Amino acid sequence: MFLRSDAAQFLATDSPDSPQATTQREDMASISKMENGKFRAQVYRDGVRKSKVFATRKEAKQWGARQEYLLENAPEVNSRIPFGDILDRYGREKSSKKKGARPEIIRIERIRRDRLAKVALGDLRVTDFAEWRDKRLTEVKSSSVRRELEQMSAVLRIARTEWALMSSNPLEGLKWPSDSPPRDRIATQKEIEALRISAGSDLFTLTGRTFQAWLFAIETGMRAGEIAGLRSKHIDGVRAHLSETKNGDARDVPLSKEALRLLSGLPESDAVFNLSSSQISSLWRKLRDRAGVKDLTFHDSRHMAVSRMARKLHVLDLARVIGHRDIKMLMRYYNTSVEDLASQLD
User: Entry's Pfam families (predicted)?
Assistant: First the structure.
């Protein structure tokens, strides 16, 4: 049932044959009959204009009355929207259009399962997020909590600035947990050999190509998703052209002799490694666990790559190869030992 305001009563007496007259009445709803026999309802209030076409005059009137009510009572109506609905809308309208959509959507879905998602926008307070933060810190690392807070902050920012659903951000003033120290995990030669045995030498198998992809990542600094998206047309001599990357910028990756050797051993295929990102992730965990290697992720290959390349490349060239716009981000992966630095001084 729709509420009938004064505007709705005006709609009821609007003449179907005088659309020109109704369109001049700003801040009021209007109904005009179109040449095809359908009815267009228009609402204009405080600079906001909405329009929709209906099969019958009754439907147009009901819609116009409802829209007027929503516009007149927007702050009150918006304040009753559950936070979870805003998260869902952000996932559909924003996250789904990003190249890195999958992890962001997974993060949003996890937050939507929390009690916090049931709280209405108008009732959200910084204390709600503080309670969520403290509880979440007992479940995951602080770096994960920070990523989820960053996600909620982005959602609330869009809700305030683009969707005009709120006048302030309830996350303001919240103390964020300290970021976790950057990983410095470097695989030992013994561990690499154990991984090699676990994967096997047959590159016609998914597991064999997964280990080959990890070795290739150490040589190039490429991410798992970039390796999965690599096609034969992207390889041009000693260069791999990446048109789609995590930060959205295309980049060229130089290929060392070892990187070229690793590529030459792969079965011919348009998809160079013929693996998806999800396959790389799951197969890596299996072969790693089978090898008895602890706490080593596929992404740790990127740390190893940066530390290796840092001995040979200028920092700006290194950032270009790795694909970092910010040199500070590069420092998270830079793990050259003091002994190596000392040897470079001699």
Answer: Phage_integrase (PF00589)
